[in-house]
Structures are given as structure tokens and as C-alpha cells.
Amino acid sequence: MSSQEPHTHSHAHGHAPAAPVSRHLRKVIAAVLIPFAAAVVVGLAVLWPGGAPAHKPSGVGFDQPTEQATVLKVDKVNCADVNAEQQPQPTPPPGQQPGGGSTTGKDCDQVTIKVTTGENAGRTFQTVVTPDASRHYTTGQDVVVAYSPNAPKDLQYSVSDVDRSFPMWVLAGIFALAVVAVGRLRGVLALVALLASFGVLTLFILPAILQGSNPLVVAVVGGSAIMLIALYMCHGLTARTSVAVLGTLASLLLIGLLGSVFIGWALLTGNTDDTTGLVHGLYPDIEIRGLLLAGIIIGSLGVLDDVTVTQTAAVWELKEANPSAGWRTLYSAAMRIGRDHIASVVNTLVLAYAGAALPLLLLFSIAQSDVGTVATSEVVAEEIVRTLVGSIGLVASVPLTTLLAAMVVSADRKGHSAAAPGAEPDAGSSAPGAADGFGARQSAARGRSGRRGSRGRRRKQ
User: Fold this and answer.
1) What was the pLDDT predicted at 418?
2) Residue 313 above 80 pLDDT?
3) pLDDT tens, position by position, 372-430
4) What pLDDT digit, counting tens, does each position of 70-93 carry?
5) DSSP string, 121-156
6) DSSP code at position 322
7) Residue range 332-350: mean pLDDT, rounded
8) Count of beta carbons in the 10 Å neighbourhood of residue 76
9) Which are the contacts of 345, defined by CB distance < 8 A and separation ≥ 6?
10) Disulfide: which of 19, 101, 228, 246 matches 419 by Cβ 3.0-4.6 Å?
């Protein structure tokens, strides 16, 4: 027994299966997952877009080419002295609205900006910022400028946004350091998996949808590739990870089915904002309703991975704690963990949507709309369907993955007498809600019948 204790300890902290996987069980899992992985690879090859399709730039909104620029100087001028016909009109950045009050007698900022990239690098232009504007500029500040080649020369460039590259990279670096410092090797693998997932999203999913492929099919193939890469890279090529993959896959299929049914039943078009309208205008062949469903599937994938991996790990650790426990006892104990997970995840999803849609909800509140009107408007109903369909899939993944893991780990241990020397089949595990001691009822039930035999063995010794 003592020779097995270090092995058990290393598995508990190394996030590996609690005992070696039987050859028969490996064959069963491989028979399910290898064809699935092969189908994903074939899907990637068939649907691979080879890059986003080219289109003629419209020069409007997000379709404008942009360049980097720097603020050379900021001069104070009297707003009343600014000649609108001689000065280029400023283009407010997204979300910036000029004030409605008069600027007579007030000082405006006359900003001189130098373009630093592109074919016109070195060109300077000026723009005027009123005191009521929500954004002001300082000397030396980096900005992003939009370029309109068909406009008059003095009006070809306008400030579209500030340059946030440096603080964003710093934040990303802090995130990476925190993940590696806490997660160590697994943190590094998690970052590599994150980069791989981002690569699949940008190199396959987005260009394939723009090429006109069915968004749902693209999302299923791309999401499956992300799932396989992320789970196996972060958690190892083990039976426990494979069970999490199967639970995630089954839950994604349920989300896809429910999403398809309720998007059609609720008559959701998916075209509820300016961004979607612009994408559809540039690429009319994109099926917007399919794009909505694809977004639901991809958005649910990350949380599903967390739930399925956690539940599978819980079952494996519970089995490690009591090798004699049967699948029913394992399922009952792990579901007590899963119910807490369900409550926290569902609350997280709802609050995340409420936080993201807070400005929209404020508008409805200002309009004094009743709850029914708000909830059934398409712009809100779309998000409600997205949230509820994803939540149903998450809730279903807990019992589904837990049951699958309990049955797999129990079947695996039956083939390994060395995994639990002296352990007997868990005949009493069929009773739902086993004792909190996790297996105490079974041990107590066998206690009396085993005492005589143990006494006899001690006498012989």
C-alpha cells in the first residue's frame, strides 16, 4: 500500500487520471473520438477559406482605411474666429457628440496632427475640437486617423480614435504573467491554447463565413477544433479529458438544436445593430440568422469547457478518495458539486448580459417601457434567446458529463484490481444520495459480515 501512496498523490495534484486506464476503455474512447477528430480535420480542409474575400472599400465607417498619427501641437483659438469654410470639419470619434450649446466667446482646441504611416506619411492636417466635446487631445498623443482618398485633399484625414495599443499590450502582458505565475506549466499551455483558439477564429471561422459558407457548419467545425486543441493541450491526452470532450460535444449539439428552434420560432433576424447591417451590406451572401446561431455556439464553448472539465475532475478525485465507490455514489456526490456550479454559472451569464446591455436597458427605462415590451423587442429578445439557450446547454452539461464520467471511471477501475487492493464491488451504491462520508454506508453494511473473516485471518497469522 505504501508504494502506491506517492503515485496517488502525484495524480491528485497533476490533474491526471486517478489510475491507469484499461486497454479496453482506451479502445472504446478512441473508437468514439478518433472518427470525430477526423471529421473535424476533414471539415477544416473542405471549408478552409484561404483568407477573407476582397471587396471594394466603401470609405464609410469601419470600412475606411486607417493610419497611425501623432498630435504635434494644440493651440487655443477663439471658436468664433474659426472659419468653417477654410478649416476642415472635425470628424468626431465614435460616441463623441458635439455640444448643443453656443461656442461663441469660448476657446476651441486647434489640433495639428501628423500622419506617421501609409503612403502619405509626414503629411499634417488640422482639426478643431470644441470645449463641449467629450474627447480632447494633448501634444505627443498617438491617434488613429481615417483616410478618405476620394475626399478633397484637406479633408482626406480625420481623427477616428485614440491609439490604445500600449496600455492594451501592457494589460495583456500582466495577464500572461499572472497566468504563468499561478498556473506554471499549465498556465503556459493555457496561453498557447488561447493563441491557437484565436488562430482558428481569425484564420478559419471569420474568413469562411465571409466566403459564404454556412455559419452554423463553420461554427460547429471551428468550435470543435478549438475544443479539441484547448482541452487536450491544457489537460493532457487522458481518459478524463476525453470524457470532458464528449460532454462538451453533446452539450454543444443541444445548444445548436435549441438555438435553431427558438431563433426560427421567435422570428429573429439577427440584424439588430449597425455592425451587423454593415457586414451584411458588404457581404450580402452571409446568412445573418445563421451568424446569430454560430455566435451562440461559440460564445457557449468557453464556459462549457470549464463546467465539463470541473465535473469530470470532481468524479475522478472522488473515485481516488474512495476506490470502492460505484458509479451511482460517484454521480450523487459529484452532482452536489455540480449544483453549486450551475447556480454560479447561470447567475454569471445573466449579470454579464445585463452589464453589457446596460445602456440599452437605460434607454428602455427612460422610455418607461414595461418589462414585456422590452423583453419581446428583437434587440433584447435576441440576447435573451442567446443567454437562455446557452444556459440550458450549460445546465444540461452538468448531469450529462457527471454521469458519463462516473460510468467511465467505474468501468475503468473494475479492470484494475491493483488500483484498489481488497476493494469489493459497490453493491450498496445504488442507494441515491450516499452518505456524506462518501462510501460510509457501503463500508458499514459490509462491516459486520467481514469481522468474522478478519478475526479468522488474524488467528491464522
Assistant:
1) 37
2) yes
3) 776 677 777 887 888 888 888 888 989 999 998 888 888 764 444 333 333 334 433 33
4) 999 998 888 876 644 444 444 454
5) TT-EEEEEE-TT-S----TT-EEEEEE-TTS-GGGS
6) -
7) 80
8) 9
9) 303, 306, 307, 391, 394
10) 19
The sign of the dihedral angle between the CA atoms of 160, 161, 163, 165 is: negative
Quick one: pLDDT band at residue 31, thresholds 50, 70, 90?
A: confident
Per-residue exposure over 395-422, b if at least 16 CB sit within 10 Å of its own CB, e if not: bbbbbbbbbbbbbbbbebbeeeeebbee
**What pLDDT does 21 receive?**
57
User: Of 2, 437, 47, 54, nearest to 282 (Cα)?
Assistant: 54
Query: What Å distances lie between residue 300 and 116, 249, 270, 402, CA to CA?
Result: 41, 11, 17, 19
Q: How far apart are CA 62 and CA 67, in angstroms?
A: 13
For the chain, the residue count is 461
How far, in Å, CA of 403 to CA of 405, rounded?
A: 5
Residue 129's pLDDT band, with cuts at 50, 70 and 90, is: confident
Tell me how far apart the alpha carbons of residues 98 and 130 are, in angstroms, rounded to a whole number.
7
Dig out the grid coordinates for 276 from the structure. Answer: 451587423
Q: How wide is the angle at C-alpha 164 spanned by C-alphas 159 and 169, nearest 5°?
A: 155
pLDDT band at residue 103 using 50, 70 and 90 as cut-offs: low
The one-letter amino acid at 230: A
Q: What is the pLDDT of residue 441?
A: 41
- Cell (9 digits) for 235: 489537460
Using a cut of 0.70, tell me whether the model's pTM lies above it. Answer: no
- Degrees to nearest 5, angle at CA 44 with 40 and 45: 120
Percent helix, percent strand, percent coil in the chain, to nearest 5: 65, 10, 30
Please give the single-letter amino acid code of residue 340: D
Give me the half-sphere count of Cα atoms (radius 13 Å) on the Cβ side of residue 219: 22
- What angle is formed at CA 128 by the lines to CA 126 and CA 129, rounded to 5 degrees? 135
Average pLDDT, the chain: 75
Under DSSP, is residue 1 helix (H, G, I), strand (E, B) or coil? coil
